[in-house]
Amino acid sequence: MVIGAAVEHAGIPASEIENKGIGESMQGGGNIGRNAAVRLGMIVVGVGGGTESMSTAPGTSKPGPDGAPAFWLSPGNPDTPDAPPFNMALTVGDNTAHLAGVTREETDEWAFESHRRAIRAIDEGRFDAEIVPVDLPGGRQSTTDEHPRRNSSLEKLATLGLLNAGLDDAVTTAGNSSGLNDAAAALVLCSRAYAEAHGLTPLAAIRGWASIGLDPVETGLAPAKALPKAGISLADLQSVATNEAFASTAVASTRIMGLDHDLVNVNGSGCSLGHPIACTGARMILTMVNELIRADAQWGSVAMCAAGDMGSATVIERL
C-alpha cells in the first residue's frame, strides 16, 4: 500500500511500473536488486528504497497458552536462548560485545560520539541536500532529524540501566542502542545510457556488493564479515558507514576490520540518527554519496547487519 501510494503521489503511470515491490532497502528488492537488474539489462531505470513507521508498526495476534489472543510479531530468526528474536539487545548488542570483547565504556563512548557527529552534520548543513521537508499538522514542517541529542554526555549515558542486566558481560543500554524512528528514503538507479539520453548527471556508481548469512548469535559481526567480500580493499576506502543497530556492532566491526574510527560514521548513524529499519540501507547509501561529494573523496562503503542472521555491504564510487 505504501509503495503504491508513493508511486501514485509521484505521478508515475501504473503502466510504466514493472515492479513496485520493494523489500529491504539495501538488498532484496531495494537498491542492490535494482542495480543488478540494470547491469543485466532487465531494466534501464529503477527506484530502490524503503519506508518505516516504527511509531505505528503493526503487529498481529495468535492464540496464547490459554487460547486467548496474544500480541505477536513475525520472528527474524529461530528462537533460541542465546539469540531470542524479540530481544535484539541480546541477540545483536550483547552477543556482539561478548564475541568481540567490547566494553560498556567503549559502547557509551561510541554512542556519544555518534550524537556529536550527527549534530555537527546538522549544524553544518551536511544533510540539507538529501532531506525532503515533510508537512505536519498545524502548518508545521519537519526539515531535520529529531533524534540526535544535544544534551547527551558520557556521564548521563553511564547512569542508564542495562537492558539485559542478568548477563555477566552485558553492555547494552537504551543510550548505546539505535532509536525508534519514522523515515523513508529512495534512490534512482539507471544505466549510463539512460542517464545520457535524459540529460542526467550520475552522482555515483555501485561498484560492488555482498550479502551474507550467519549464525544469529553473530549477527552484529555482519558488517565485518560482509564488507571484505564486497570487492574492494579496505585500505582503499575513504569513508565507511555502518548501521549502529547497537554501538557494540560498530565498535566491533571497526576493530575487526582495522579501520580508523575517524573514517567510520563521520556524520553519525543509528545511535544518533535512528534506525528506521526498512529505510536505513537506502538512507545510508544516499548519505554516503553526499559525503563523498562533500569530502571530495572517491571510494566509500556501507555495511549493515540485518534481522537476526544476515548482513550486507555496498561499495560506492563517486563519479
The CATH architecture is 3-Layer(aba) Sandwich
Helix share of residues?
A: 25-40%
- Tell me, briefly, the overall form: globular
Quaternary status: single chain
* CATH fold call: Peroxisomal Thiolase, Chain A, domain 1
Sheet bearing the most strands, described? 4 strands, mixed
CATH 4th-level superfamily: Thiolase/Chalcone synthase
Q: Largest beta sheet: what is the strand line-up?
A: 7-10-9-8
- The total of helices stands at 10
Number of domains: 1
The CA-CA distance between the termini, in Å, is 35 Å
A few lines on this structure:
This protein has helices at 2-9, 31-39, 88-100, 104-123, 154-158, 192-197, 222-226, 247-257, 270-273, 277-294, and strands spanning 45-53, 60-63, 69-72, 134-135, 141-142, 182-190, 204-213, 239-242, 299-306, 310-318. With 319 residues, it is α+β, with helices and mostly antiparallel strands.
Essential attributes:
319 residues; alpha+beta; Peroxisomal Thiolase, Chain A, domain 1; four-stranded mixed β-sheet; two-stranded antiparallel sheet; 10 helices
